[in-house]
């Protein structure tokens, strides 16, 4: 069996942050922006490249776009992150992978499957903060 490269070891606070990030995503797809808002950057840079193709810049604009996005969802959604790899070094961290969800949308009776390719970048200020999210639809969305 070939040698596998060693996986980077994440600082404990970053690993804890990623657990809080996943929980904030769970709340988001249930229509609650609050937990995600608490993890987002309050100072520039802050960017969001959403699955609809938008490019949003600035902390206030990113918050507004995320708040509007959460409002489309209704309680009762299921959500999970499939982390392909993540790391943190110094004051920067990231994760890449797939977000799979079955979401309840406002005004729709049936749940909707969703699969997104994700890249998120974080900066440590007083705590880890989300400074960039790039999400687009997974082509083979076998949810």
Description:
The mean pLDDT is 91. A 6-stranded mixed beta sheet has the order 2-1-6-5-4-3, with helices on one face. It is built from 3 helices and 6 strands. The longest helix is centred in the first third of the chain and has 17 residues, at 12-28. By secondary structure, the chain is an alpha+beta fold. The chain has helices at residues 12-28, 34-39, 59-70; strands at residues 47-49, 55-57, 73-89, 92-105, 112-124, 128-137.
What would a concise description of this structure say?
With 143 residues, the protein is α+β, with helices and mostly antiparallel strands.
**How many H/I helices?**
3
Class computed from helices, strands and strand pairing: alpha+beta
Write down the CATH class.
Answer: Alpha Beta
Compressed to H and E, one letter per element, the order equals HHEEHEEEE
Q: Which short descriptors sum up this protein?
A:
alpha+beta; 143 residues; 6-stranded mixed beta sheet; Nuclear Transport Factor 2, Chain: A
Q: What is the secondary structure topology, with strand pairs?
A:
Elements: H1 12-28, H2 34-39, E1 47-49, E2 55-57, H3 59-70, E3 73-89, E4 92-105, E5 112-124, E6 128-137
């Amino acid at each position: 069996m070939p040698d596998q490269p060693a996986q980077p070891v994440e600082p404990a606070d970053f690993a804890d942050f990623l657990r809080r990030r996943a929980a904030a995503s769970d709340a988001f797809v249930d229509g609650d922006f609050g937990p995600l808002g608490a993890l987002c950057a309050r100072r520039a840079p802050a960017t969001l490249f959403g699955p609809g193709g938008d490019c949003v810049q600035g902390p206030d604009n990113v918050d507004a776009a995320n708040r509007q996005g959460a409002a489309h969802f209704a309680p009762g959604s299921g959500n999970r992150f499939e982390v392909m790899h993540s790391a943190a070094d110094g004051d920067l961290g990231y994760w890449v992978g797939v977000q799979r969800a079955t979401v309840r949308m406002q005004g729709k009776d049936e749940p909707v499957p969703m699969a997104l390719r994700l890249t998120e970048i974080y900066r440590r200020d007083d705590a880890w903060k989300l400074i960039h999210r790039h999400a687009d639809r997974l082509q083979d969305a076998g949810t």
